[in-house]
Amino acid sequence: MSERLAPQDKVPFWRSPQGRAWMFQLCMVGAFLWLAVSVYRNTLANLETRGISSGFGFLGNEAGFRIGEVTGIPLPQGGLLWFLLSLVTGLVVSQLISRHLKSKSERPMNSTWLSVCLLFSIGLPMLTLYIFRDSVEIAHYTESSSYFMALLTGLGNTLKVTVIGCVASTILGLLVALGRLSPNWLLSNICRWFVELNRNLPVLLQLFFWYFIVLQQLPNVRQSIDLGGWLILNKRGLYLPSLVPQQGAWLFCAAVVIGLAAIWVIRRRARRILDETGVPVKILFPSLAVLIALPALAWLLGGQPFTLDFPALKGFNFKGGTGMTPEFTALVVGLTVYVSAFNAEIIRSGIEAVSKGQREAARALAMNERQVMRIVILPQAMRVIVPPMTSEYLAIAKNSSLAVAIGYPEFVSIGGTILNQSGQAVEIVGIWMGVYLCISLLISFGMNIYNSKVALVER
Amino acid sequence: MAQDIPDRQPPATQVGLIGWVCKNLLCPWYNAVLTVVSCWAIWSAVAPFWEWAVTNASITLDPVAAKEHTGAAWGFIRDMWPVFMTGVYPAEERWRPLIALCIVVILVSLSLVASFRRSKWLKVLWFVSPIVVFALVYGGGITGLPVVGTHYWGGLMLTIMLSIVAMLAAFPLSVLLALGRTSDMPIAKPFCVAYIELIRGVPLITLLFMASVVLPLFLPSGMELDKVLRALVGITMFFSAYLAENIRGGLQGISKGQYEAADALGMGYWKKTIVVILPQALRIVIPPMVNNFIGILKDTSLVGIVGLVDLLQIAFATTSNPKWFGRLEEAYVFIAFWYWILCYALSSYSQYLERKMPSASK
Q: Is the model's pLDDT at A208 over the cut of 80?
């Protein structure tokens, strides 16, 4: 019997799992290559029959269409380029230093190294900004600008919506989540139905609702809703006063930044004293004093840093201040409300995921309600909250592309216009995908860094 | 020396109506404030809506008579009901989607009865039904019915068909992608990772644009793809990536012992995967898959942007009709109602499944 159990000399490669896997993968690569080649050939042939030249040369052509909402874009040349370069250098240097310290398993940051890092990551960019003070060119899109500038303007609008949407939906989501957790039966049910209603309706429907129904029922320019000149709302959009920087603005901003940095140092010192001696140090009043005194001093030295520019009715429309078009308002409000429902559920489930024992233990240590939340519950809830929140932020960035349906000039809608004008379908779709991929990667990169900070460190 | 201890107050009642109201609405004082604010919020949201939708509404089919009421003109919905359901599908052929709907409803209700669920015949019927439904709605071929091309399809019918077909088509693709991503094949794995991450990083709109504008360029000249089919390709590509990530979660949730046991029984890769791994993995991820299906159902509303007349676009089509011009509010409420009912039913079902499902990490 033993000869049947003897190991065979060699398994033929088509019977071994590895061999099969390789064969399968070779087939896959072959099929993919065949597909790619045939797609490439078909596309070339099709483009030729339609008389469209491929390549990205068209980006330099004159656009010639109007964009309803234009934000100034710092041109990626000259001073700005140096600024970005020094920012990256500073961050990389401080990253290298902290990694070096970690590998030497020292205390991660003592104050000397911290100041070196700060010097590099803040000081260096500030220095460049000072040297190239006037050479950051801000470009405004006009009809004679190139397609490239049009796309850049669209990208700027997309990023604007994304950032505002992320911040606003987090705040609204937090409020709704707290409402759902409140012991008040009525409030928690209102919040529950807010979530149920928003989650189960398509976001495009909601955008249409805000744009075509809510904003259309606003009064005309003449009868606009006016809150003492501070907030003006009518069919043409929402107007707020804008800040106009004056002579002393630089000094004032610097004072605020220094004040914040000082508070941070004070807090660190207070915590160190608490750790070493157990004596709690009151920091609220000193930090408030610093935060008020420094800017006030700057105000006195440099004169009034900002003046407010109020929107005023001139002719048929409001001039001055910051105007928001109805498209922008509808998009931001719609996206915020839609995503905040998801955020609320994520935050609620995160808070509920912290076991009851933790809360009870914290109470048994005589912590008050605020301390329980801040020291015990929230840090643990964050671990559950952050990863799904990342995908919600990504969803905002991606859903901002729905603006194409209500005519807000963001990246996809401007790309669509260019596509219709020039017929460069392959290139435009390629640019869309590449840019959205970059935005997604950036958001998830940032959130992953944050996540690794709040994640549970197991020893 | 006995000290005088004052009598304590009896505890506030916790039971009964008064106790409930006090505990949940009024005590302590800030709760009462919240209650008042909530009541005001409900009142200011519901009262105008009620006035518009019920008090001042009309249900007459005559648009001129409806103009005399300040509220909603539900006669518009009554009048346009078939259009909302089937779009521009020819009126005399509308019985065909209706029968198809009946077939599906009967099948679903049969599946809900526990004693029928195990029978083999039901499975066969489920497999046959898509073909029957397509033959009925499209016509032509052996049915002998006049052909109704896909550009006549629209409304709720198109929305539901798109989402169901996209789900069915995305499912096998996503299983393969998930298997590829969890495997250790040096070429196939990065391939699947790249596909999933690429698709998940871009908005659905760009994929739909790609399917509608770029896909025809990729095909050999002379080969035309149907507009609905093109949209379907975009949606399927998009959701297969999301679904693949869900299924990957399920694959990772299966203990290593299962793989090793299957190996010990001498099973090959495909046998191991199909008989042992996938049934368990898919069972774990049914609730997230239902959520995914809700996502598909909601996101099919984007096909309007590339020119299909789905349920949402019907709102614009019907309200630009001079007879009922500008009745956008009614149309939106009606459409929202349908989306909400469908999605809420599905999400309740997924929550029910989640409660019923034995958790993976026992």
A: yes
Contacts with B42 (C-beta within 8 Å, 6 or more apart), sequence order: A186, A190
Say if CB A424 and CB A52 are below 8 A apart. Answer: yes
Residue pair A215/A326 in contact (Cβ under 8 Å)? The answer is yes
Is A185 in Cβ contact with B24 (below 8 Å)?
Answer: yes
Interface contact flag, B204 A398, Cβ < 8 Å: yes
- End-to-end CA separation in angstroms for chain B: 60
Contact between A402 and B299 under an 8 Å Cβ cutoff? The reply is no
For residue A429, give the nearest of B186, B213, B315 by CB distance. Answer: B213
Strand A237-240, strand A231-234: pairing? antiparallel
Distance from CA of B337 to the nearest CA of A (A): 9
Q: Do B221 and A183 touch (CB under 8 A)?
A: no
Give contacts of A37 with chain B, Cβ < 8 Å. Answer: none
Cα–Cα distance, A248 to A139 (Å, whole number): 25
Give pLDDT tens digits for A268-300: 888 888 888 877 777 778 788 888 888 788 788
Q: Does B182 touch chain A (CB under 8 A)?
A: no
Contact A436 B202 (CB under 8 A): yes
Burial profile A230-260: b = 16 or more Cβ within 10 angstroms, e = fewer? eebbbebbbbbbeeeeeebbebbeebeeebe
B201 interface with A at CB cutoff 8 Å: yes
Residue A331: CB atoms within 10 A of its CB come to 27
Do residue B335 and residue A200 have CB atoms under 8 angstroms apart? no
Give the bridge partners for A225, in sequence order.
A233
B298 in contact with A at a CB cutoff of 8 Å?
yes
Check A39 against B214: CB less than 8 A apart: no
Q: What integer pLDDT is reported at residue A2 of this predicted model? A: 47
Per-residue pLDDT of B27-82, as tens digits, reads: 777 788 888 888 998 998 899 889 888 888 888 778 788 788 888 888 888 888 88
Look at residue B73 and give its three-state secondary structure. Answer: strand
Backbone dihedral angles phi then psi of residue B56, each to the nearest 5 degrees: -95, 10
- For helices A185-199 and A147-181, give the axis angle rounded to 10 degrees: 150
CA distances from B201 to A110, A288, A402 (A): 39, 43, 15
Question: What's this model's pTM, rounded to 2 decimal places?
Answer: 0.83
